[in-house]
Amino acid sequence: MFGKDDGCAFKYKGKKECIDGKATFYKHTYSFKTQRNNTYLVEVDEFEYFELCAVKFYLKAHRHSNRKYQLITKLNEMPSILSTCVNIMLERYQSNPLQSFGFIGMNNENEEEANSKRFRLYSKVMQRVLTPDKFTHEIYIDKSIYLLLNKESLVQVPDLRQKIETFFVPYL
User: Fold this and answer.
1) Which strand (E) or helix (H) includes residue 17?
2) How many other C-beta atoms lie within 10 A of the C-beta of residue 32?
3) Of 47, 56, 70, 144, which has the most beta carbons under 10 Å away?
């Protein structure tokens, strides 16, 4: 459960350039269907300057909701969803060995932002599946943010952590 082999087959749907306030990035979209035939969308926001991808997913049926990342499906498909997201991350890492990753464990409607239930689950999965030999695991419990900083990138750009923290953590 929650392993690289537990994911679903996914399709790359394309990318578009986005400008959001002070950030310009590429939004890569993937889709996949679970065994129960539910379609999910995974968005990977690629910030080339930082070699960082922010990974987000939601049920396709929720795509028009402003709360799509917060809604609970109650479909009990989390192992295959997270495994598929990890497989997408690994594919991106293979195409760019300097790639780092980040995500936010969005809080539920009646939950505080800090140390959300999703954040706690995602953190456990990432620590188990993506071991620290290639990535430094950075957590920001107060914002439920998890960063996987590529160790090779940190060698090449020693102040990468500070750049990412300065830019992203307040932004998120």
Assistant:
1) strand 10-20
2) 22
3) 144
Q: What are the backbone dihedrals phi and psi of residue 169, each rounded to the nearest 5 degrees, phi first?
A: -60, -45
In this structure, which amino acid lies at residue 137?
Answer: H
Cα atoms found within 13 Å of the Cα of residue 33, Cβ hemisphere only: 4
CA dist 128 and 142 (Å) reads: 22
Q: How far apart are CA 158 and CA 66, in angstroms?
A: 37
Q: At what angle do helices 117-129 and 78-95 cross, to 10 degrees?
A: 50
Tokens 């929720």, residue located: 62
The residue behind tokens 């953190």 is 123
What pTM does this model have?
0.92
Alpha carbon distance 110, 164 (integer Å): 29
Name every residue whose Cβ is closer than 8 Å to that of residue 42 and which is 6 or more positions away in sequence. Answer: 10, 29, 30, 31, 32, 55, 56, 57, 84, 85, 88
